[in-house]
Design goal:
Blueprint: H1 8-13, E1 20-24, E2 27-31, E3 41-45, H2 57-77, E4 83-88, E5 97-103
Antiparallel strand pairs: 1-2, 2-3, 3-5, 4-5
């Protein structure tokens, strides 16, 4: 039933990943499985690479620009947003992906800490 989770990028390419919002120049925008905060998205790099440093300069530009454009869309849609947090991690999934998280005033003290 959730086979698409075993390879989120391949399932996005096949149209089988139900979390896909849209495809961008650098990859796929998906809704994060846990919606800790409304609008929490992830940019999955395509082509699939290990890290940002594996991309050439043009591909890096595209990936980082796409991250910021997703942030712009979240500011517009998830109003009122006080900021967007951008994280490129790699602790669990061993491919390039970025977490784009809107942060809200109503979070109170919690907004001072990462999710």
């Amino acid at each position: 039933m959730d086979e698409w989770k075993s390879d989120r990028i391949a399932s996005a390419l096949k149209g089988e990943n139900p979390t896909v919002i849209t495809r961008m120049k650098s990859g796929f925008v998906v809704l994060a499985d846990p919606q800790f905060l409304p609008g929490y998205c992830i940019l999955l790099s395509y082509p699939k690479v290990f890290s940002l440093n594996d991309l050439n300069l043009s591909q890096r530009w595209d990936f980082l620009l796409d991250m910021s454009l997703i942030g712009d869309a979240l500011i517009e849609v998830c109003s009122p947003v006080i900021r967007i947090n951008y994280d490129i991690l790699g602790n669990t999934d061993n491919y390039l992906h970025a977490h784009i998280t809107p942060r809200y005033e109503w979070e109170g003290e919690a907004k001072k800490h990462p999710i």
